[in-house]
Amino acid sequence: MQKAAIERNNETIAAQLTPVGRETVQDRVYSELRRALIGGLFEPSQVLTIRGLADALVTSTMPVREALGRLITEKALEALPNRSVRVPPITLERIDDLLRARSLIEGEAIALAAARMNARQIATVEAMLGEWDEMRALKHKKDIDREATLNQSFHFEIYRCCGSAVLIPMIESLWLQSGPCIRVAIYAFSDAGEVDTAHYHRSIVAALARQDAQAAREALVADISRPFAFLRDKLQSASKEGLRA
Amino acid sequence: MQKAAIERNNETIAAQLTPVGRETVQDRVYSELRRALIGGLFEPSQVLTIRGLADALVTSTMPVREALGRLITEKALEALPNRSVRVPPITLERIDDLLRARSLIEGEAIALAAARMNARQIATVEAMLGEWDEMRALKHKKDIDREATLNQSFHFEIYRCCGSAVLIPMIESLWLQSGPCIRVAIYAFSDAGEVDTAHYHRSIVAALARQDAQAAREALVADISRPFAFLRDKLQSASKEGLRA
DNA sequence: TCAACGCAAGTGTGATCACAAATCAAAGTC
DNA sequence: GACTTTGATTTGTGATCACACTTGCGTTGA
Questions:
Q1: Which residues contact B94 (CB under 8 A, 6 or more apart)?
Q2: Is the ipTM of this complex over 0.90?
């Protein structure tokens, strides 16, 4: 019975090797498109074609069309009656709609998380606060992409603690939908002068640290409302311009 | 310039014809699978294969695999590491999770709807109440499928009035996820004796009629909690049985 | 007797082709 | 000159094939 020995041997091998996984092309395409959408690499109303994306991603059309189908069901993309697909356009109603849904669901998620986070988990998000300051210190080079990524990690690190396998995918879907809008707002932000995202994040962490669910929810809503409110104003003045012209 | 005349002619023709649309096979497969899932035709933990479904639906594998992919991203189905796909199994945590999410989001939707519904819309859902009683009158033949369909129509008729294009797809996704669980509960219900769904629906309509958002929310939560609570008890006693054995 | 091996059927994934619909541009018509 | 028509190109959809992986069962070996 040297079975135990073989078992041990296999375990030591497993400990040395990093699992390569068996990610399909379709999965890679899907995450790549997700990343692009949340990061705002696509503009609202931009039309996407299967063959175009397949060329850009250097694959065949097959994985792309399945990934697009999945993104359409998540409302991250929009299927036009022409059967072509585009990034959903920004409208005032949609902005308010998205903000309300995000406040509701992400607010619930952080309230749940506030009651469940342990010291280690709080320390993790606190550390991300430091990372943010660090990045801000060398502000000569504004790296909007890096800021967006860090912001996303911060939020989802918290949401992951809410213990709900149902809410988190919904939040991801909401980020996917608001990604293109938000990015437009962020660009406008950095033109219009600095905003202290770090301040909002600090008050979120403070509320979490004292397990104050209500305060955490309010701080979070304040944080996510900012770009939406900014975008809303921008859109309203733009439409007034349009009316005048 | 007889363009206007042609236009008019086309319009009169269009008024007579019912649009056949240009629904793709993929769309039909997708809605069929949705219907089956919400209706609970698939059992939790049941494994589905692409070729099997393609045979059952009399199409090729192509539309089926895309539909399955979409359902997986909505968490209506689950992708196993083996790359096979199954209906998500029922667990206690999942039941609580789904109920919490549904209470939160559908509660918000009905609260919004309460403030927005006009007399005609309220009359519509009131009429559905009557339809329910009618069906119940000839209760000799319990048609669970018909009850489920009517229940779904009732709820979504209300939700559609909330004016949010973001919330409604999320609610659909939640129904898709809870469909298989609920159906198990409903079957157990009808064994365990009658429950007065109509009573809950009546109090929902009453609250909507007097635009009482809070009452509507509470009545709704009571309505959707019932099968979940029932299922929860059933599962708990079953697991106790399992432990004893 | 039982575990390990190996073969065969079944399954998901990706590529390619055929086809229909949409789009765009140039030529034609009033 | 404005509008329609026609033809070429582009695009999404569905079918089919090839390949890799998994699974199940029967055989082999100790």
A1: A165, A166, B88, B181
A2: no
